Amino acid sequence: MRMVIGNGLSFEKRSPRVTIWNEYIHERTDPQIAKVYPKGIHIALAEGLQPYGFLLRTATLEMLEHGLTKETLEQTDVLIWWGHLAHEQVSDEIVNRIQARVLQGMGLIVLHSGHRSRIFQRLMGTTCDLKWREDARRERLWVVDPAHPITAGIGQYIEVEPEEMYGEFFDIPAPERLVFISWFHGGEVFRSGCEYQRGLGKIFYFRPGHEAYPTYYNKDVLRVIANAVRYVGAPHGATPTYGEVKPLEV
Amino acid sequence: MRMVIGNGLSFEKRSPRVTIWNEYIHERTDPQIAKVYPKGIHIALAEGLQPYGFLLRTATLEMLEHGLTKETLEQTDVLIWWGHLAHEQVSDEIVNRIQARVLQGMGLIVLHSGHRSRIFQRLMGTTCDLKWREDARRERLWVVDPAHPITAGIGQYIEVEPEEMYGEFFDIPAPERLVFISWFHGGEVFRSGCEYQRGLGKIFYFRPGHEAYPTYYNKDVLRVIANAVRYVGAPHGATPTYGEVKPLEV
Amino acid sequence: MRMVIGNGLSFEKRSPRVTIWNEYIHERTDPQIAKVYPKGIHIALAEGLQPYGFLLRTATLEMLEHGLTKETLEQTDVLIWWGHLAHEQVSDEIVNRIQARVLQGMGLIVLHSGHRSRIFQRLMGTTCDLKWREDARRERLWVVDPAHPITAGIGQYIEVEPEEMYGEFFDIPAPERLVFISWFHGGEVFRSGCEYQRGLGKIFYFRPGHEAYPTYYNKDVLRVIANAVRYVGAPHGATPTYGEVKPLEV
Amino acid sequence: MRMVIGNGLSFEKRSPRVTIWNEYIHERTDPQIAKVYPKGIHIALAEGLQPYGFLLRTATLEMLEHGLTKETLEQTDVLIWWGHLAHEQVSDEIVNRIQARVLQGMGLIVLHSGHRSRIFQRLMGTTCDLKWREDARRERLWVVDPAHPITAGIGQYIEVEPEEMYGEFFDIPAPERLVFISWFHGGEVFRSGCEYQRGLGKIFYFRPGHEAYPTYYNKDVLRVIANAVRYVGAPHGATPTYGEVKPLEV
């Protein structure tokens, strides 16, 4: 859709092209998890995000080039990442390729256990380690940056139950914008919505989404992910140039 | 304009309502400056921003309540501020009122000598003092955050000539996002595009715009201001609540 | 103490001069609170900080100029602030004077209900409002920036019980460094250790310390305050100059 | 040196142990550069830093394990890094080892062309690319954070002449604290003093130091590096723990 404004000044506004990546192992190997996500987490996310009008596709680990060919990534405005068991099986080549695309401006949304993915570690420069406990209690995500567009349509907090616990210290660089902080029943807190920028690309880490619980059917969780797609997929400024240059002044 | 997306999920997208405030003294008292801005800086800005499709109005110091009545501010999504000689003549009541509206979510764009305005000092908590020299040389504003939407349509830098020099140290809190750094011929640099957030409101300080030079006819300068209007005027999350509360857990 | 290092390069290392300010009303008017702090919160803090070797003095609201004369502030490296009932009784002149000293480099530690003090609001530019509940349950402050010197000697978290609850949204600018996040039994979280810089001055907000509970006898709480004194009271760079300047290049 | 304070509370204060790493190629292969740094940049830096009382050692690329054995790094509080021609010759193992030590709390100072080193890219997650020109003109580094301890003893700016030009856009994450901005004669600016934290480790990037110019004999440049050693080598809080944990509340 091209919007024409006033006398000739216009900007193109189009639906973001979203690729949802899932390692897709739990759902095929564990009957309990298959019950929660029979078609896989990626399909559940795609179905949940469909009403928002994005151009959606999915990719999984076992596909050729993990489903992330050069062409696919070039046609991706936002990559959503879910992984857990097989971080080390993602090849160097694909990690390099994703990093390069983020630096060029592709948005990246890293979900839950994706905190230990190679691509997130690569972009953060840290281990991204944390505390955890699989106790199926309530998580309450408090909005601590209500002006952030990622919180549009959300009240003061989101509740997700049951969920896994993630606790501090979370070994990440200090978030450039911290959007959510989680409260857990067992006495822990967690920085659960974290924004970063690397090169021209925006990155959003969002905590909820243990594979054994139906978190990605939660309307508020989907709303945050949809808001994040719009936010990290928004257009931006000019591509930088590098290298040897002549002086501009004499 | 209401956009309907998919099966019923929608969000309203309307033109931001912009109020351009100018103290409007130089242009009426100094014939040299009147030649540059015969109708005042506020009208020059309004004319320059008109093609972008905003809902524009202007207000000046000598108007009743400086033209910033409660009603006007409530109907303002973005306030643009230019002042220089008469910062102290802006009343406590109006400064309080603007601050309250920013905290509720109104965007604020502070231009050039507005760095010493009472409202900017109030929101920053510092003197906002700096070095300066009125030498009519070139300013080159380098983009140091090319992913920032405020730089959309801008190349690697903007040149404005002639301009006044502003030099560091600029006594502001460290910008939450630093978008432009200016180079000056006399050997100085300046953080010339600075983003902040206070409450729900976004604030953007943009340096160029000495009253004696035709800066606000410069297409790139207008483009940055227009981008900033869209950026600081964008919708955001829920209004926070405060005060005594009951526990959510027992 | 002057330390001489190598061949003539030296730097002065002296104990920070600390002024502890308390409005000192609760302890004189409420017998329950007088039992907890018989000599006042300021004296309890002074006694608790004495082992750290600082040069300590106290000041209270009812003293002449609230005990914060020009001379006193000029001889203060770190000002600690506790207030609750009488924020509005602190005069404009003294608020201006403290702000000016912070901008010159005096450190400021704002405790608990001091979040609504005029000086903190002045330096933040926001309301500093929050949610609260006086329910005497446990607070657990998690370290989320273990590299911060303010956390030296502290483990992964501090527990304080009983304490008042403070909950998000806390209407402050995003902390420049977020050091602690509190967990509360009733389901809330709070950004409870927040660092800022204004001018040359460092500011640290630290949440615990309700007047009805013996928080300021807690060894970990005192340790954090002592660490903060060293941190915000540390020496820094050159005093900036402002105003009209000649070019450095021709 | 152990300082005992008051009644038994003490903290250890010792000289930071500094390892200066230099790839050491230019100085052995280019007679022009050998004239400037006859013993190598690492020895020039060691001699320049000696008066500050640090425990200094050096290491170079061609040494076994590049001179950075496990034992050496474990006994290093601050690693200073200079490299240019041979970034790719630094092995995976050593890059991993340095990163791990930084995350554990070792300080890292990256100088000049070290911006493209593997360890800096690893910790930043970006290309760290930039514009450049070897024109031997003046660089003026303006202090934009005069409260930062790294600027102690420095005035409003440092001048270095002759120097190479580095220009924006510099592809780094937004600095957590931006300390210096450089002005260049040819019309460029550059973020030339940048602080980051990764895990428990502090990182400082400092721009000056082209191999063909005698920059590391400049007293102000040495002073900044010495200040940075103290700053990134300072002690900090507790080592985090990770992994599965039991609840703290029931």
Automatic annotation (TrEMBL), chains A, B, C, D:
Residues annotated as domain ThuA-like: 17-232
Superkingdom as given in the UniProt entry: Bacteria
InterPro entries listed in its UniProt record: Class_I_gatase-like (IPR029062), ThuA-like (IPR029010), Trehalose_catabolism_ThuA_prok (IPR009381)
Pfam family for this entry, one: ThuA
Name assigned to this protein: Trehalose utilization protein ThuA
